[in-house]
Amino acid sequence: MHLQGFLSSDSIGQLLFSILKVYLLLSFVWTWVLLIHMYAVERRVNDRKKGKKRIIELSKQGRWKQTPLYSMQEIRSKKALAEVRLSVFPNDTGEKRKYAIVCPGGGYAHLTTIQEAYPVAARLNELGYTAFVLEYRTGVHCSDYAPMHDLARAVRYITEHAEEYHVLPDDYAIIGFSAGGNLAGIYGTHEYGYEKYGTKKPGALILGYPWTNVNHWLRHPYWNIWQGLMGIWFSERGNVFMFGFRNTKENRESLCVQNWITEDYPPVYMFAGGQDIIVPANAHTDVLHRALQIYGVKHIYQKYFRIPHGIGLGVGSEADGWLEEAIHFWETETELREKETESREKE
Predict the structure, then answer these.
(1) 3 has pLDDT over 50
(2) What are phi and psi of 17, to 5 degrees?
(3) 116 with 176: CB under 8 angstroms?
(4) Domains and CATH numbers, the chain
(5) DSSP states of 6-68
(6) pTM score of the predicted model
(7) By C-alpha distance, which of 105, 131, 115 is closest to 52?
């Protein structure tokens, strides 16, 4: 009798409901623990003070410059173009060297320029490189691949003003974080990137926890429903900002970088964190890593177990030094291409 009562449908239903409530509560609490940990870590390690300090230093020297990328006539016809600008961080070496464009993240909804882009640009200056921080269109102004248009405009502008900024226009690097990593990754493709816009091919793509597989949340189940819902929100928000009501499957798939990898894709350095719940490595960088392997694209992929999202420079963290490693990779690939070119010319 006791066994029959225990196995009654009402008892089983109550048990399952209790298990569901415990699951929802525990997964909710765990999600918030990870989010709080993320914000605590990124504020400690992104070294935003370095970026601010460098801007003050350049301003005192009269070398700090922010320039719009669109003309007044273009801005009058479309006011959103006024928010697109390039911040110039010139190096102190006096040498004419390659340059890098830094693209902050923000899920195509906003920009994390202070946290990610300015500190990285300042560190690039310390390493002897001129850096350009791109503030591209986001939010409701992001539609019709606007960030890609803005990046193309930046590359053309720098190429045209290479002598003024004392940089070499070839073999430039694009450094992108999160959604900025998506932007950089897409710009390395033929269909939606440098070739479409008629600009020079990047010498290297340097991607920090890149949001490369934008639509993965709708195809994969997750044990943590709150993390899944959060991911769906970010994906759908990005798609709506980018495509508006023309949110077709073709458009959505165009933002997934792994779909457009070819054998001549630019060399890639990328890193991600094992505790990233915003852009999980297993659904983004792991997927891109496999695509790069399939097409034989030269790349380095570093995964740091204790690292969350949004760390930027990652000073004092497990990822500390990733930028120096990425720069070494970029320079090595340039040297290899130059040797191959010399060899072909001799033949």
Answers:
(1) no
(2) -65, -40
(3) no
(4) 2-346 (3.40.50.1820)
(5) HTSHHHHHHHHHHHHHHHHHHHHHHHHHHHHHHHHHHHHHS-HHHHHHHHHHHHHTT--EEEE
(6) 0.92
(7) 115
